[in-house]
Amino acid sequence: MRDFTTAIYRNLLDQLKAQGYAFQTFSEYLHAPMEKVIMLRHDVDDRKLHSLEFASIQHEKGIKGSYYFRMVPHSFDEAVIREIHELGHEVGYHYEDMDFAHGDPHKAIKLFEQHLEKLRAVTPISTICMHGSPRSKYDNKDVWKHYQYRDYGIIGEPYFDLDFSKIFYLTDTGRRWDGQAVSVRDRVNSPQALTFHSTAQIIDYLAQGKFPDKAMLNFHPQRWTDDPYLWQKEKYIQQVKNLVKYWLIKWRA
Predict the structure, then answer these.
(1) Which of 8, 183, 184, 218 pairs as cysteine with 173 (C-beta 3.0–4.6 A)?
(2) What is the pTM of this model?
C-alpha cells in the first residue's frame, strides 16, 4: 500500500484503536490528560478539503482531532471550518503573524487579534499553534516574547504547553516521518530515540505493542490523497521543497 493515502491513514487509526488508545483534542488533554492517549493534530496549510476528509474519516470512527487553520485563502474557509467543528473536532488558529508583520511584534499582535476575532466569528477558539513559515527568516513564536497569548483567552500552544520529554511527537513534515533534516521549525526537544520513515512502520510498531503511551501525531492533510495524479504531484513537489529547506537550514546555520 502506498504511503500518504487516506487508505493507509485509515489503517493507522484502526491500529491505534486496536491498541486501546484514547483520543483527545489538544484542549481536552490540557484540561484532563488521559494515561494512554493520542492527540491528532492537523496543520491545515493548503487543500482544506483534504482536512475535511480527514475529519470525516475520524468522525466515522468515533475519533476527535485538532485542526489549525491559517489566515490565507487556501486554508481559511468558513464553511469547511464550521463543518469540521460540527463533526466534533477542535478548531484552532495556525498563526503566522510575525511573518505577515515582517518581524515587528507590535504589528504582529494587532494582526493576531484581528485574525483570532475572524476565526472566533465562525467557531470557538481556545488553542493556537504556530505555522513554521519555512521560507521566512521570522519565527512566529517570537511574538510571545513580547505578549501573552493567555490574555486572549487561549489556554495552550503545543510548543509551549506540552512536555515533549513525556509526550512522543511525530510529524509528517517533509512528507516523511523522519524529516528532521528538512524541518525548519517543526521541532521539539525529546529524549525518545524512536524514528519511523513510513506510516507502515508506525503501524507495524503499534502492532507489537511498543508504541509510547502518550503521543501527538501531526499531519498536513494536503499531502494525503488516493488520487494517483495528485499523489505523484505532491511527492515530487515535496522533494523539491525538501531540497530547498535542507540548504536553507545549512545556510542559516
Answers:
(1) 183
(2) 0.92
